[in-house]
Amino acid sequence: SSAKVGFVGLGNMGGHMARNLMKNGHPLIVFDTVPDSMQAIKKEGATLASSPQEVASQTNLIITMLPASQHVLDVYTGSSGILGSVQKGSLLIDSSTIDPSVSQQMAEESTKVGATFVDAPVSGGVNAARDAGLTFMVGSPDQSFGKVKEILDKMGKNVVHCGSVGTGQAAKICNNMLLAISMIGTAETMNLGMKLGLDPKLLAKILNMSSGRCWSSEVYNPVPGVLDGVPSSNDYQGGFGTALMTKDLGLAQNAATATQSPTPLGSLSHQLYRLMTNSGYAGKDFSSAFQFLKQQDKK
Ligand code: NAD
Q1: What is the C-alpha to C-alpha distance for residues 120 and 138, in angstroms, rounded to an integer?
Q2: Per-residue confidence at 1, pLDDT binned at 50, 70, 90?
Q3: Calpha distance 45→270 (Å, rounded)
Q4: Which own/partner contact pairs does 117-120 have at CB distance under 8 Å and 24+ positions apart?
Q5: Which of 244, 247, 277, 287 maximizes ligand 1 atoms within 8 Å of its Cβ, making it the mutation to test the pocket?
Q6: Active-site residue 112, yes or no?
Q7: Where is the active site (predicted)?
């Protein structure tokens, strides 16, 4: 039978990922701070734990999917954290997008107690999480990657080894900087075209058969009604929160500062997403950049 897996963080992404493990026959022991998320997955057969520490006492294979660096620090090293009761030889896979230096710190702390921590942030969005179509970017020791890939294959279609711990985060931060730039570009392009009298569905169709095509135009179009089943067509609910995108752009800017890399559009995107976060858009999907721009239109 399949190994029991611990899962901490059952949000927009983690909830789907955990369910895909259950579909593949893995018994789950889970923890989230939101009781409703716990109750929902319990009905589907998962066992509930009262803390990350209890999860670690019940299994030696754990996946975490949390919002940001501070949550990862709490869940691993906090007073009822995973490292408080982790079993020797455990494999700890963190799929949150966080600061690479925090991943490296967690790996060092884990090594001290005989466990292996790897970073494995994801790309793909909530629908890819639901359909086990995620891309995982893994920073891990060479000898651990085989075991990491074996379990991540059940939640994704691409599992890429990037290098040592922290390099998965490096790849993810670069991807999301480009994603933010392309989303804002798509939003302002669609808005301009609509003001010029073009039908948004037709404009999207033309972009997607032309050189402007990108994921934001084709798979995750920010204009309501252009695509079915994406957050823009559901009042920008669910999906990838604007506050989380702002966090990722901050990580990219920290990295750019540390390496003295010029990233003018990454910097501008960070500022735009921060404006949105501070203007009531924090909890909306990041494709609400379209709605935000529309509100700045000349009336
Ligand atoms: P989310 O906010 O929907 O989910 C996070 C979950 O963690 C919530 O259920 C929350 O209750 C839980 N949590 C917070 N603190 C906790 C704690 N101390 N103990 C246990 N649970 C705790 O976020 P999400 O959209 O699922 O994203 C998770 C991570 O994945 C983020 O780092 C995000 O940047 C990244 N990501 C998201 C997407 C996306 O499309 N949503 C895509 C790629 C990567």
Answers
A1: 4
A2: confident
A3: 41
A4: 117/76, 117/92, 117/165, 118/91, 118/92, 118/93, 118/94, 118/144, 118/148, 118/165, 118/168, 119/94, 119/165, 119/166, 119/167, 119/168, 119/169, 120/93, 120/94, 120/95, 120/148, 120/152, 120/159, 120/168
A5: 244
A6: no
A7: 172
Q: Is this structure's pTM higher than 0.90?
A: yes
| Per-residue pLDDT tens over the stretch 172-211 | 999 999 999 999 999 999 999 999 999 999 999 999 999 9
Largest CA distance in the chain: 64
Report whether 283 contacts 243 (CB < 8 A): yes
d(CA 31, CA 29): 7
Nearest alpha carbon, ligand 1 atom 15: 71
* pLDDT surpasses 80 at 224: yes
Q: Which among 144, 236, 120, 247 is positioned nearest to 187, based on CA atoms?
A: 236
Q: CA nearest 154: which of 31, 14, 6, 26?
A: 26
| Residue 86, amino acid | V
Cβ contacts of 61 within 8 Å, gap of 6 or more: 3, 4, 5, 6, 90, 91, 93, 151
Q: Which domains does the chain have, with CATH numbers?
A: 5-164 (3.40.50.720), 170-295 (1.10.1040.10)
**What number is the average pLDDT over the span 14-20?**
98
Q: Rounded to an integer, what distance in angstroms lies between the CA atom of residue 132 and that of residue 128?
A: 6
User: What angle in degrees, to the nearest 10, is found between the helix axes of 167-195 and 242-259?
Assistant: 120
For residue 232 the two structure tokens come to 């823009």
Burial zone of 223 (CB within 10 Å; 0-12 exposed, 13-18 middle, 19+ buried): buried
* Token pair in block for residue 39: 């109750």
ipTM above 0.90, yes or no: yes
